[in-house]
User: Fold this.
Amino acid sequence: MLEVRDLSVAYGHIEAVKGASFALAPGEITALVGANGAGKSTTLLALSGLLRPRRGSVVFEGEDITRLAPHEIVRRGIVQVAEGRAILTTLTVRENLVLGAYTRKDKGGVDETLAQVFHLFPRLENRINQYAGNLSGGEQQMLAIGRALMAKPRLLLLDEPSMGLAPILVQEIFRILVEINRGGLTILLVEQNVRQALKIAHHGYVIETGRIVLTDSGANLLGNPKVVEHYLGG
Assistant:
């Protein structure tokens, strides 16, 4: 579905991603895990068109999208949930969700997607007219995911969805991600919570200082001695 080939991304003279190559299979959850500063978020920003790679290519469903603008990438079906949620705090829950569907013209379809989002996140329906800034951290993360789903993506990019959340809310968010994936949506998950990410991932990649150093199924990476030693506290 998505193939990343020899991707390198730099901030000035500092190369944050150094020739990374990986692929995503349709209908799977793929986890990209590693330490803080390893290049995970930079990779997502490049896939979304928010950073221009120094070299390499990104191919989505057979089309090279490396040089497309972010809004064009969204129209192709790739939507990112940013680290820190990036919700619009002075707008209501409803207004945030409707904005997520800005590329769509099918009002009936948008209403149907809105109903699906409320099925996944009943808390949002209960707070539909509240300002997003008054939501709890967990509810804001639900809103950020729900807003992305309103675009009806084929590939969902998630950047640190567990950040700042209590453990019980982390479990809820990850349970919902599995449910979303079972509905057919392909997910690329960037996450510092390595154990939680690999538990739900079909496939995983470990990135260190901008390079992919390990790849395997999520289950096998959970049992890999290097992963256990460096990321799971073994």
Q: What stands out?
A: The CA atoms of residues 30 and 198 lie 9 Å apart. The first helix runs from residue 40 to 47.
